[in-house]
Amino acid sequence: MHISVADAHGRLSYLVGELNRGPVTITRRGKPVGVLMTPEEYQQLSKLRAYLEMLRLSQELAESGVTANEVWEASRAELEARV
User: Fold this and answer.
1) Residue 14: which CATH number?
2) Mean pLDDT in runs of 10 for the chain (83 residues)?
3) Which whole-number Å values give the CA distances from 33 to 26, 27, 57, 72, 78, in the listed order?
4) Residue 18, class by beta-carbon neighbours within 10 Å (0-12 exposed, 13-18 middle, 19+ buried)?
């Protein structure tokens, strides 16, 4: 479902009720500016985003030749130096 900001302004309760049918895209001048979704959908997307970021970091780490143990040791030494 797509709805303009102006139309959404007075219909928030209705739109929240429609979330069981899927996300609601809010538009301004015909262009998407936001999305309403259930907390469960948001949580799933957040988890997916975090997972993909971990994959990206893992790949960068593998390509750099640095081991996870080296990162751990350097992090530990940095934290101990702060204390």
Assistant:
1) 3.40.1620.10
2) 84 91 94 95 97 92 86 91 86
3) 6, 5, 29, 40, 41
4) middle
What is the model's pLDDT at position 68? 81
Number of structural domains, the chain? Answer: 2
pLDDT at 9: 82
Domain that holds residue 67: 41-82
Q: What is the distance between the alpha carbons of residues 6 and 64, in angstroms, rounded to a whole number?
A: 50
Query: Bridge-partner residues for 2, per DSSP?
Result: 25
CA separation (Å) from 25 to 10, 14, 42, 43, 48? 15, 14, 14, 18, 20
